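Each lists chain and fold; for instance:
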Amino acid sequence: MLLVATFFLPVMWVTGDSMEPTLQKGDVVIGVASSTYEKAQVIGFNHHRSMILKRIIAKEGDWVSMDDEGYVTVNSIEITEPYVFAHSAGISDITYPFQVPEHSVFVLGDHRSTSIDS
């Protein structure tokens, strides 16, 4: 039964702190496949052979900016992020403003000071 459940509903273990306080190190997350994604939704994806959990901030065509204190605007509107642990610009090589490419989403961790994103 576990094998069937794992095949249809991927099980992921949280190993880092980039999604705190939403997800804590050691939490178990059960994924559900979807072909549609919404802003503020937490998604899991493969990156360099690792499963990564992050939150969708913007979708294709959106313009994203982040100020020096870590506050994010999408299409020139500051977004409300009650899930963010502490606002911080974090570590990234992205130059803002950034337009999300076609067929892509822009993701960030909730614990911005420890998260390297999009």
